[in-house]
Amino acid sequence: xxxxxxxxxxxxxxxxxxxxxxxxxxxxxxxxxxxxxxxxxxxxxxxxxxxxxxxxxxxxxxxxxxxxxxxxxxxxxxxxxxxxxxxxxxxxxxxxxxxxxxxxxxxxxxxxxxxxxxx
Length: 119
Known about the structure:
The protein starts with 18 loop residues before the first strand and ends in an 11-residue tail after the last strand. It has three helices and five strands; from the N terminus they run ββααββαβ. Strands 1-2-3-4-5 form a five-stranded mixed β-sheet, with no helix packed on it. The protein has a domain at 3-28 and 64-113. The protein is α+β, with helices and mostly antiparallel strands.
């Protein structure tokens, strides 16, 4: 899968609405929950929301994914991302999409955010 062929799809949460997890603030919804909600829209509903129709036919684990958490002690964002997302063009898109320009952040890999190599 060429990183240039990937379409970034996101589900975001404002920090004020984030869920506390120890010293971190995180998105309250799990990947599975968000993905299944999108899948239930079907191809037509996905198209109306400008989401890829491929969501309707694949599991969320089939694609590279990640999560952004905020370390409230260090006032730093942690960007956990599949290694296939860790290319300059995609990282720039992720940073822009999540409004992290000018913020302190660290990019990390994590075994939980590795995709199956299916599509």
